Every structure is written in structure tokens, then in C-alpha cells.
Amino acid sequence: MPYMKMTCRAGKTKEIAKYYTYWLQPEGRKRSPRVNPTTEQQQKINDRHLVKRLTRLLNANFDENCWYITFDYKKEQRPESVEVLHKQEQKLLRDLRKIYKKENAVFKYVWTAEVGKRGGAHIHMVVSSIDIRLLKNIWPYGWTTIKPMDSSGQYRRLAEYFIKYFQKTRDTDEQMQKKSYNPSKNLIRPVPKKKPMRGKKFSYEIKVPRGWYLDKDSVRQGITADGYEFMYYTLIKEGG
Q: Are 89 and 113 in contact (CB under 8 A)?
């Protein structure tokens, strides 16, 4: 049993990772030297983990019937302080909950705030299925842009955008957005399953089972900071 395999199912996607550890690796193989990342490198590693966790949440809970919404501020109505922004965020969530409750619909969401260096503010949000006409006048501070989620079921790129918005805000004022993203409590939270595998070593060949296809942009392989080989990729279910 020389290596570990991690599998995580989230909606239409299935993540797979193979990697060695101190206890599980081919006989006679030595690990590469351990690397101590710089502060900047560690931040990038942390942000990659944020993207991965957010991708799982989005993939497990949202689909083509859901919506990606951006709430923009007019320049003259931008929040004057962190406290004002937070109050407006909370009122928006309360108003949305009322609409979903009235429609007897389940309200699931993930949102993040974006504040640019010049003070431009936005709230980005993914919400569960609802008649968008009901949201027409919910935001009094500027424009509301609503887009349907695509049918792929793989929302990694949207997760990357969310984390970029957080990075931008983090570089301006950390108090504006302490969390990288804010999910509702009723979301499905996928749990990765790990198990030791038999065989002399893991293969870098990716075998795609019938009914699935490979997300080529997800493929990664290399050496961990601890010095062990790994490979990682995501499969997407055809047709859901």
C-alpha cells in the first residue's frame, strides 16, 4: 500500500488526488527536500485551498437553475464605512430570505464583497433558484446584474473569481471582508474520502470512466512542500 488516494464527489464533479506520504511510498524511493515557503508563497497556497473548498461548495449546491448576481453601488451611494457596508449586506440577506420564504423556496447562497483601491464596492452572490423578477427592486444603491449559472456543474472558475475579489479587498482594507466568502448554513459540504491503495506506485495515467469527461484545466502534478509526489484532477459527469 504505497500511496494514498483522495476522492471527493460534489454535484456533477469528482475530484481525485493520488499522493505519497511518509508512511506510504514506494520502497527505496526518497522524498525530495522539504521546502519552507515564503510568506507570499504560503499565501498563494492558502488561496488555492480556498478556491478548492469554495469550488466544492458551489458544485455541490448550485446548478443551471441558480443565479450569479452582482450588486453594484452608484458612486454617490457607496458605503461610508465598514459598519454601513455590513448593515447593507445584512439587510440584503434579510430581504432575500423574505422573498424565498414567501415563494416557499429554499434560500441557499454564497457571497463575497469586493472593494477596489478607488473605493468602488460590489457584492457578488450566488443564489438558489428563484423567479428573478422578484429581485427587481431589492437593491436601492445602484445596479443589479443577474446571470444564469451554466449547466456544466463545474464552477471552479467562478470560485477563482470570488477569491480574487477577496484578495482585492484584502489588499485595500481587511476590515471590509474578514472572510474570503460567506456561505449559508444549509449548504451541502462535501467531505473528501481518503484510503491507502495497493500497488508498487501510482500511475500518472488518467483513466476517464464512461459517462465522465476530464476537466483538463484541473490537472496538476508535482512535489508537495513536504517533498512527496502528487497528482490531482477533476472529472465531470456528462449530462448531470
A: yes
